[in-house]
Amino acid sequence: METRQRFADKIDWGLLFLLMLFFIVSAMGISSAQTSGQYGTNFVIRQAFWYVVGGIIIGAALFLDSDQYKRLAWYIYGAGIFLLVLLLISPESIAPHRNGAKSWFMLGPLGSIQPSEFMKTFLILALARVITNHHELNPRKTVQTDFQLLIKIGLTTLLPLAFIMQQPDLGTSLVILAIMTGIILVSGITWKLIVPIYASIGVLGAGILSLVIWAPQLLEKYLNVKPYQFGRIYAWLDPYNYAKLEGFHLINSLNAIGSGQIFGKGYSDREVYIPENHTDFIFSVIGEEYGFIGASVVISLYFLLIYHLTKTALDTKEPFNAYVCAGIISMITFHVFQNIGMTIQLLPITGIPLPFISYGGSSLMGNMLALGLVFSMRFHHKTYMFSSEDS
């Protein structure tokens, strides 16, 4: 017999509390960061506005349960593809090039919106449905059925990836690949297929990186790639030789985080200037002002978030929900690892924001939409009297 739950009992208060902590950290970081630039806008107020909009998105997400999301997955995915196509064919007055990429729709006073940020969550829904339907149709697993599933996952991912690369947006493209990889790892596909494929990709990537470093002339000769196009790679490996160009942000980021030491310099007591530090380099601001302690608190918040999402995935009885959680975990984990990694020279610099902390409406709304799915899972979770969990 199903038991009734009060509305308050259906809300994931733990996840809501984590979001409140992220907002506090975001507001403090952005408030300080914006004082170092010639900005005419109060980004804290805007970030608070986007958090409110994100809260509305989460509330709207509660109206649908997992069965409805599963049925609508392809329609949602199709809508995302339509927006990506529309973006590419729209005139400059609607979708201008910014920083060399055509990734945003301009919405007048509301600013801009980036469809690819929402496409990440749309893709997670589509991949979760692909895997769930495949397992329902193929209850008996074989290497052949696993290979078929791998092809389905690859094709579903390739379509949005191709349009995002056309913008071009390397950072979001990497996130898309990370989502696909994370979902593949939990999809039940045999390791006999996964290991050779990803080992080959790893060897290929290492080979390309080697050519970029030691033999760029070969890439220029045979692939018509110019050495300057790999400036970020060179600046990552040796930033001080590119101190006035691609290495400028990285050097200042290292100086900022290093100078923060254990306890930091205190709120608004920064000395290192990093352009646009309220967006991609917000972690550098936190590291300088609050030191190792403050940076550790931020990283701990992400550990708690990932733990919470993992627990939700393990608690759910719906395979579709588990795959959705896996995709969201992969997306957020890659965002955090890449963003923090690039500020400390662990990884090359890409335009990937720090989830829930960096300023940005599209990024925040996209992540809130993803968490809205998790809130929905808890909200519509059914409990039964005399279930095995209670015995």
TrEMBL record:
<feature type="transmembrane region" description="Helical">
    <location>
        <begin position="356"/>
        <end position="375"/>
    </location>
</feature>
<dbReference type="GO" id="GO:0008360">
    <property type="term" value="P:regulation of cell shape"/>
</dbReference>
<dbReference type="GO" id="GO:0032153">
    <property type="term" value="C:cell division site"/>
</dbReference>
<keyword id="KW-0472">Membrane</keyword>
<dbReference type="GO" id="GO:0005886">
    <property type="term" value="C:plasma membrane"/>
</dbReference>
<dbReference type="GO" id="GO:0051301">
    <property type="term" value="P:cell division"/>
</dbReference>
<feature type="transmembrane region" description="Helical">
    <location>
        <begin position="72"/>
        <end position="91"/>
    </location>
</feature>
<dbReference type="InterPro" id="IPR001182">
    <property type="entry name" value="FtsW/RodA"/>
</dbReference>
<feature type="transmembrane region" description="Helical">
    <location>
        <begin position="290"/>
        <end position="310"/>
    </location>
</feature>
<feature type="transmembrane region" description="Helical">
    <location>
        <begin position="103"/>
        <end position="128"/>
    </location>
</feature>
<feature type="transmembrane region" description="Helical">
    <location>
        <begin position="149"/>
        <end position="165"/>
    </location>
</feature>
<feature type="transmembrane region" description="Helical">
    <location>
        <begin position="197"/>
        <end position="215"/>
    </location>
</feature>
<feature type="transmembrane region" description="Helical">
    <location>
        <begin position="171"/>
        <end position="190"/>
    </location>
</feature>
<protein>
    <submittedName>
        <fullName>FtsW/RodA/SpoVE family cell cycle protein</fullName>
    </submittedName>
</protein>
<dbReference type="GO" id="GO:0015648">
    <property type="term" value="F:lipid-linked peptidoglycan transporter activity"/>
</dbReference>
<keyword id="KW-0133">Cell shape</keyword>
<feature type="transmembrane region" description="Helical">
    <location>
        <begin position="322"/>
        <end position="344"/>
    </location>
</feature>
<feature type="transmembrane region" description="Helical">
    <location>
        <begin position="49"/>
        <end position="65"/>
    </location>
</feature>
<keyword id="KW-1133">Transmembrane helix</keyword>
<keyword id="KW-0812">Transmembrane</keyword>
<dbReference type="Pfam" id="PF01098">
    <property type="entry name" value="FTSW_RODA_SPOVE"/>
</dbReference>
